[in-house]
Amino acid sequence: MRVRCTIWFRAPLGWGRRPLRALLAVAGLLLAVLPAATASAADNGSWAVFPTPPAGTATPGPGDRQYFYLESAPGRTLSDHVSVVNLTTQPKSFRLYAADAYNTPRDGGFALRTEGQRMTGVGAWAKPNVTSLTVPPRTRADIPFSLTIPTTAEPGDHPGAIVAIETDVEATTQQGGLAVGIERAVGARIYLHVTGHAVPALSVDAVSVQHSAPLVPGFGANRGTLHYTLTNHGNVTLHPSVEVSETGWFGSVYHRPPTGSGIELLPGQSVQLTLALPAQPQFGGVSVTVKASDGGTAAQGQGGYLAVPWLLVAVVLLLLVAVGVWLRLRAKGRRPHRAGRRRSPEPAEVAA
Question: Does some domain include residue 171?
């Protein structure tokens, strides 16, 4: 389970505005490269967040729900409970908030908006009864929450989560005179479906191949990396399967049958995916077709590239140029020789 790490900095005394701006830029960069929080009905070894199990049980069993699956028409209010369990021997304090979910652009992971970010779905509609609490050691706290669906809510899937952030800084290190602290967060996923007309829609965009080849054909392997983007234009979550076909000048190069992407593609989200392409041709034009489908929706995109052993081509061109220069010089060398073969003049007639 991945968690989002919040990093804070303490600047040394005497820093001016410009160094502080640079510091904030560094903080933003660090936050950008950290993995986003993924909601999970599991623990991180110290504490856990999950839908409250039936009365009399401490943690969810195999037959209990691992996530919140809720369905309602617009304009209604739903109520439920979320549990926060402290698995350690020391009390722990938490902040609670509701968050919208999204796909991480690079791998399609299920991620959650952070505190302070603008929420438009579950993050705006769900309200825990408390926003901060302290859980004693080896204790479970059950917190009620309500989820009010606006009358203007669009039909379809609205994923999100109830997130608990440990308020105590887990670790502090000194780096270049800066104090760096880390907070951990865990969320219990909410899969909310607002009743109405379901519209699945999918597109495959930006299909391209990054191709690499040895300078001399036969001395190394040709490699290709396929890049493409899947976008969910509909209002329901998709689990697309992807089929990849490559065709060259001399026939089929590679074919991968429809294979599950392993991604929950949320409504309105795009993910950028890659695939290693084996056995790429040494020479020729290659067309690549990517087909994605899930149930009643399908789409495809195309791209291509030209495989050319440029070093070999350059050598051949140089040889042709050299042969052309040699032939030209040889032709020039022959011209004076032919000009020297002049016919001797005939003797003029002398009048008697």
Answer: yes
What is the separation, in whole angstroms, between the first and last Cα of the chain? 126
Together in a domain, 181 and 248: no
pTM to 2 decimal places: 0.76
Q: Identify whether residues 159 and 260 lie together within a single domain.
A: no
338 part of a folded domain: no
- 143 burial via Cβ count (<10 Å: 0-12, 13-18, 19+): buried
Same domain, 47 and 161: yes
In a domain, 119, yes or no: yes
Q: Are residues 12 and 148 in the same domain?
A: yes
Is residue 258 within 8 A of residue 243, CB to CB? The reply is yes
Question: How many structural domains is the chain composed of?
Answer: 2
Q: Do residues 247 and 105 both lie within one domain? A: no
Amino acid sitting at position 71: E
What is the extent of the structural domain holding 128? 6-55+64-194
Say which residue the tokens 């040699």 belong to. Answer: 326
Angle at 267 between CA 261 and CA 273, to 5 degrees: 30
pLDDT in tens, the chain (352 residues): 333 443 333 333 333 333 333 333 333 323 322 333 333 445 788 999 999 998 888 778 777 888 999 999 999 999 999 999 999 999 999 999 999 999 999 899 999 999 999 999 999 999 999 999 999 999 999 999 999 999 999 999 999 999 999 998 766 666 666 767 778 899 999 999 999 999 999 999 999 998 876 656 666 677 789 999 999 999 999 999 999 999 999 899 999 999 999 999 999 999 999 999 987 887 788 999 999 999 889 999 999 998 776 555 666 778 888 788 888 888 887 766 555 555 555 555 555 4
